[in-house]
Amino acid sequence: CRHCRATGTAPGSSYQDCPDCQGRGRKGGPGLLRFGPFCKRCRGHGKIHTQTCPHCYGHGHLWENSSYHLQIPPGTVDGARLRIAGEGGKGFQNGPPGNLEVIIHVEPHFFFTRVGNDLHCRFPISFAQAALGGMVDVPTLDGCRTLNLPRGTQSGKVFRFPGGGAPGRAHEPRGDQVVEVVVTTPGNLSPGQKAILEEFASLEREQLTGA
User: Fold this and answer.
1) Nearest of 132, 140, 148, 130 to residue 185 by alpha carbon
2) Which of 184, 191, 183 lies closest to 152, judged by CA?
3) Most buried of 21, 51, 99, 133 (most Cβ within 10 A)?
4) In the CATH hierarchy, which top-level class contains the domain 1-64?
5) Does CATH number 2.40.30.100 belong to domain 113-186?
6) Any residues with CB less than 8 A from the CB of 40 and at least 6 apart, and which?
C-alpha cells in the first residue's frame, strides 16, 4: 500500500505493545518465547498500530489488477507453471515478497492433437485419391508439406513426418507429425460422377463374377 508504505498504519498514528503477546511477537510461557508460535494478532512484530490505514485496513498491501508480459518457452505443455519473481504476497516481517506462479492452459487446436511431443492429425482424402494415389498438401506447423499417397490407400492409414511435431522442452528433441488419412464418401454426385461410379461398379461386379 503506497498510502502507508506497506506498514498498515495510518499516517501520524503510533504503535503499542501487542496485548496478546506482551510485545514479544510469540505466544507461550517464558521457556517457549524463542520457539513458540508467532502471535497471530501482531504477526510476530510484537507491536500493533493504534490506528489502521483506511486504504488497506491494516494489511499493508492492496489488491489490484496488473498485466505482465510473459515469454512462453517453446514446447510448453498444458498445466505448466511459469514463475514471476517478487510478484507474490507480502513477505513476513517486512521480508521479501513471494513469487507469482502462472498456470498455463493450452487451448485445443481444431486440427492438431498433441501426444507428448508428437502432433496427431486426421487428414481427409477423396475416394479417387485413395484409389489412384497422388500428391496431397498436408498442413504442418511449418507450412504445407507434400504427402505422397500410394495407390490403394485405406482409410485409417498412418503416415509420419519426422521432426514435424511440437518443439521439446529443454534438451528434448522435436516430435513427429502423425497423419491419419480418412477416406471421405461423396454425398452429392453430379450426373457425370454418378455415371462414372456406376460404370466402375459394373466393372467391379464383372470382375467378381468372372463374367
Assistant:
1) 130
2) 183
3) 21
4) mainly beta
5) no
6) 20
pLDDT single digits (tens) 147-179 = 999 999 999 999 999 999 999 887 889 999 999
- DSSP 8-state class, residue 89: S
Q: In what order do the strands lie in the sheet with 113-115?
A: 113-115, 118-125, 177-183, 158-161
C-alpha cell, 200: 466402375
The residue written with cell numbers 505493545 in the block is 17
User: Residue 59 has which C-alpha cell?
Assistant: 494489511
Q: Does the pTM exceed 0.70?
A: no
CA 32, CA 34: separation in Å to the nearest integer?
Answer: 6
β-pair type (118-125, 177-183): parallel
Q: What is the CA radius of gyration of the chain?
A: 34
* Range(s) of the chain covered by CATH 2.10.230.10: 1-64
Q: How big is the chain, counted in residues? A: 211
For 52, the 3-state DSSP assignment is: strand
